[in-house]
Specification:
Largest sheet: 6 strands, mixed
Structural class: alpha/beta
Radius of gyration: 36 Å
Strand order of the largest sheet: 6-7-8-3-9-10
CATH architecture of one domain: Up-down Bundle
CATH class of one domain: Mainly Alpha
Order of helices and strands: HHHHHHHHHHHEEEHEEHEHHHHEHEEEHH
Number of strands: 10
Length: 621
């Protein structure tokens, strides 16, 4: 029985077209660390503290100017009331329109200043939020390049994309609106309270009594909505991961008639997102009607008490009008703070997902004094031990010495770990113990960039990007001329095919490169490797997707390319590696035999069994 030597999937990755337990958020999962995340977000914003302080000052100034307005307007109302009463009683000169006009001019000035301060702070805060968004996405992009391959083997691509797009957007929108609104609401609440006390402490106490009642309802709703906001962001990432996976594999899904299974998996994730989404939105939506109801109760009580105090001559008519305005505005900042608290819950959930990504364990750092790149092409494995998981070692004690220019074949059944050896050689994964030397230097003494620049790869899974054929070939060496690109294409026997296309080398491949055949894609990747002109070649099933005639041509091109270069060839068809200088035979994730083709046949061991069974299969076919 074979061991699975491929890297394990992470516990949170949606698995395959039919979905699966790996992509689901299990019931009872702990809520996010709200306080810790908010502290981390505030620390992240510390470099913008000067701009944020200016925003807060402008927000406070704008709010103060708008708060003073009702009391000043109350003086005009009082003066108007006194003038009307004097005319009725015949005891005065009537209404003092000059005084009222002066008050109106003051009010206009205050409200204009308030609007200007509000506009300026909005402009500054928008710039800050955009800078934060840009910085988040830049750091995420840079982080991706520092993450080990293990992370991408265990994480859904759609989940990563969701963190870059949805979660960062949620933080940006919250910063742009919520931060200043918190300050505005707090300032408004404090300012209105002071102004109300200046009018009547009795009426103010009645209004303040509404706060505990509002707070109880607010905390009750927030406590129950927080977990749903967290689940909403989580399921959104799962859904994006599923959609991205389904879009990338739609041909396979259709070929195996898995459309219904894919739709069922999508509906499952969508239902989970819907359930958490409507609960969070419903609970947060209760804030406004509940707060309005409590505010209306307070408004009724204030009107009754204000009428009583006016009749007794304890306050003026204009003060009632001003106080009523303040009371109507009194619950508004409380309601805003309640709504903001819900937004902050969603923001914290999004921010924590972003910070989780930024805090992921990175590849070990490159050496401070890296070894210089040397030529030669020698490779040596010394007692290499490796496992994708610490407790599941798949390569126990592998040693081999490859001389410059040798052709090394790595063979074995599917899942034996052939590609794992290549990943270790290029430091996609670090070994648990032992040493790998390239040109006599430990690969850990090179920078990863310098190490990988020595290698050229042609993989079984072809990778081409959305661009012209010319640019895809030139990816092997970006400074190559057009003539060198064509020469590499000819060496890979792809030039004739390219010239038959409508735009030739300028034909643009789509995102999936599905407008050329699998064999043609393989030829293009071989041309890319030829153009790179590497010191060491890695060929992983390089001819597995081409027809027999093309394979013969490619084999000839590869033989010319491999002359004078160290090459590692991973192949299932053992007949293609008979002339290899050294054959490494893998079984159950370990090296069980090594030697030349003839030596291994004479031992009559596992390699001989593989070779004879394959040869018999070809004969019977």
């Amino acid at each position: 029985m074979e061991h699975n030597t491929r890297p394990p999937r992470g516990p949170h990755r949606p698995r395959g077209p039919m979905g699966g337990p790996g992509g689901r958020m299990m019931p009872g999962e702990k809520a996010k660390d709200f306080k810790g995340t908010i502290k981390k977000l505030l620390k992240y914003l510390s470099r913008y503290h000067a701009a944020i302080i200016v925003v807060l000052l402008f927000a406070v100034a704008s709010t103060i100017f708008s708060i003073v307005g009702p009391k000043i307007l109350g003086k005009a109302t009082t003066k108007l009331f006194e003038g009307v009463m004097a005319q009725i009683m015949g005891t005065g000169q009537g209404i003092d329109f000059g005084y009222i006009g002066m008050i109106i001019l003051w009010l206009i000035g205050l409200y204009v200043a308030s609007a200007l301060f509000s506009a300026v702070q909005g402009l500054i805060m928008t710039r800050v939020s955009m800078k934060v968004t840009y910085r988040f996405r830049k750091e995420i992009s840079e982080k991706i390049n520092r993450l080990p391959l293990r992370y991408f083997d265990s994480t859904s691509h759609g989940d990563v994309l969701s963190r870059i797009t949805n979660d960062v957007d949620a933080i940006s929108q919250s910063l742009n609106s919520s931060l200043t609104q918190i300050i505005t609401s707090a300032t408004t609440l404090i300012g209105i309270t002071v102004m109300m006390f200046s009018i009547s402490w009795k009426m103010t106490l009645v209004a303040i009594c509404m706060i505990p009642l509002s707070t109880v309802f607010m905390l009750f709703i927030v406590k129950r909505s927080q977990k749903h906001f967290v689940r909403q962001q989580k399921y959104l990432g799962f859904l994006n991961g599923h959609v991205e996976e389904m879009y990338g594999g739609h041909t396979v899904i259709k070929a195996f008639n898995r459309e219904d299974a894919s739709v069922r998996a999508f509906n499952q994730y969508n239902d989970q997102l819907y359930a958490s989404g409507w609960k969070s939105q419903f609970l947060s939506g209760l804030m406004m009607p509940v707060m309005n109801f409590i505010g209306n109760l307070g408004y009724v009580c204030i009107c009754i008490l204000g009428g009583y105090l006016t009749v007794n001559g304890q306050i003026q008519v204009g003060d009632i009008q001003a106080f009523v305005q303040y009371v109507r505005s009194f619950t508004q900042p409380i309601t805003q703070i309640a709504n903001i608290s819900n937004v902050l819950q969603q923001t914290a959930a999004a921010a924590e997902r972003v910070f989780e990504f930024l805090d992921e364990e990175e590849e070990s750092a490159d050496p401070e004094r890296p070894a210089p790149v040397t030529t030669g092409g020698s490779v040596e494995f010394q007692h290499v031990r490796f496992g994708y998981l610490p407790d599941k070692i798949i390569i126990h004690d592998f040693s081999a010495a490859i001389k410059p220019g040798q052709q090394i074949a790595i063979v074995g059944p599917t899942g034996a770990g052939k590609t794992t050896v290549v990943k270790l050689l290029m430091r996609f994964y670090d070994i648990n113990s032992g040493t790998i030397l390239v040109n006599g230097t430990d690969i850990k003494d090179y920078t990863r960039h310098d190490l990988r620049s020595m290698f050229g790869m042609v993989l079984q899974d072809t990778w081409l990007y959305n661009g012209t054929i010319r640019d895809n070939i030139r990816y092997g060496r970006l400074d190559a001329t057009d003539e060198e690109v064509v020469a590499a294409a000819k060496a890979a026997h792809v030039d004739h095919f390219v010239r038959t296309l409508p735009d030739g080398y300028d034909m643009v491949l789509n995102e999936e490169a599905s407008n050329v055949s699998q064999g043609q894609k393989q030829l293009l990747t071989i041309a890319r490797a030829i153009l790179a002109d590497p010191e060491i070649l890695i060929l992983d099933e390089a001819t597995s997707s081409v027809d027999t005639r093309t394979e013969v041509l490619i084999q000839k091109a590869m033989q010319n390319l491999m002359k004078g270069r160290t090459s590692f060839v991973i192949a299932h068809r053992l007949s293609t590696i008979r002339d290899a200088d050294l054959i490494l035979v893998m079984k159950d994730g370990d090296i069980v035999e090594q030697g030349t083709h003839q030596e291994l046949l004479e031992r009559n061991g596992f390699y001989a069994s593989l070779y004879n069974s394959q040869f018999e299969g070809e004969q019977s076919a």
